[in-house]
């Protein structure tokens, strides 16, 4: 994900200003309706940004629109792998263009590729919001992208005691979507045009 922010500018929160840790920033924005904040590498950058409108600073962080069929060169890709033989699920997020792995989860008992992609997207959004990173997030699962839009994982797998860890993550993801806004574009990774998803586990 690149360098982690060291300073946070809060435009709207319990107490606007510049804070030198995520924990200090979080106290100002968690649960505050319409909170506006971003992370920066230096205090000077945070202070300068705070003198400008939030949406103007945020817009500068948005990626430029891609030309048709242009392969993305920035952002984050997620993917999931479901082992049908052993009924185990894994998912992960990588950063473009380096393909550096940001996180990997699993194996979890049972699940599906779409569940894994849904969780990977949401957990990436959670992490990027903490860091004030507005980069796009790519997934090759149209279903998972739809579930995120609906703010609900619409799996037909029934919750069972042996799936506790999986469904705890699903509930946490749904709760976060229902109580948080995010600015990251969610985009379909076009495998036919761009090749394999960079987060693919390579087990096909």
Q: What does this protein look like?
A:
There is one protein chain. The chain has 204 residues and is α/β, with parallel strands linked by helices. Helices cover 35% and strands 24% of the residues. It has 7 helices and 8 strands; from the N terminus they run ββαβααβββαβααβα. A 5-stranded mixed sheet has the order 6-5-4-7-8, with helices on one face. A 3-stranded antiparallel sheet has the order 2-1-3, with helices on both faces. A hairpin with a 3-residue loop joins strand 5 (88-96) and strand 6. The mean pLDDT is 85.
Short description:
Belongs to the RNase H family. With 204 residues, this protein is an alpha/beta fold. It has helices spanning 22-29, 43-50, 54-61, 113-131, 142-150, 164-179, 191-194, and strands spanning 7-12, 17-19, 36-40, 75-83, 88-96, 100-109, 137-139, 186-188.
Key attributes of the depicted protein:
204 residues, alpha/beta, five-stranded mixed beta sheet, three-stranded antiparallel beta sheet, 7 helices, hydrolase, metal-binding, nuclease, Ribosomal_bL9/RNase_H1_N, RNase_H1_N_sf
Low-confidence stretches: none
The succession of helices and strands, N to C, reads: EEHEHHEEEHEHHEH
Shape: globular
Helix content, binned percent: 25-40%
Class per helix and strand makeup: alpha/beta
Cα distance spanning the termini:
27 Å
Largest sheet: 5 strands, mixed
Query: Which whole number gives the mean pLDDT?
Result: 85
Strand runs, count: 8
What Rg do the Cα atoms give?
18 Å
Strand content: 15-25%
Number of helices: 7
Strand order within the widest sheet? 6-5-4-7-8
EC number: 3.1.26.4
Domain Ribonuclease H1 N-terminal: 6-48
Organism: Thermanaerothrix solaris
Pfam families: Cauli_VI
């Amino acid at each position: 994900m690149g360098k982690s922010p060291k300073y946070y500018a809060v435009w709207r929160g319990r107490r606007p200003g510049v804070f030198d840790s995520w924990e200090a920033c979080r106290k100002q924005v968690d649960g505050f309706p319409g909170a506006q904040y971003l992370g920066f590498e230096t205090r000077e950058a945070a202070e300068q940004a705070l003198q400008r409108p939030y949406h103007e600073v945020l817009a500068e962080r948005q990626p430029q629109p891609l030309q048709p069929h242009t392969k993305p060169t920035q952002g984050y890709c997620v993917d999931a792998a479901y082992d049908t033989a052993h009924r185990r699920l894994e998912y992960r997020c990588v950063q473009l263009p380096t393909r550096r792995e940001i996180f990997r989860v699993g194996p979890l008992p049972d699940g599906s590729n779409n569940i894994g992609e849904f969780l990977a997207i949401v957990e990436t959004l959670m992490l990027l919001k903490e860091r004030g990173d507005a980069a796009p997030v790519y997934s090759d699962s149209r279903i998972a992208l739809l579930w995120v839009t609906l703010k609900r994982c619409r799996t037909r797998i029934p919750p069972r005691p042996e799936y506790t860890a999986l469904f705890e993550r699903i509930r946490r993801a749904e709760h976060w979507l229902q109580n948080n806004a995010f600015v990251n574009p969610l985009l379909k990774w076009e495998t036919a045009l761009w090749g394999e998803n960079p987060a693919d586990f390579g087990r096909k």
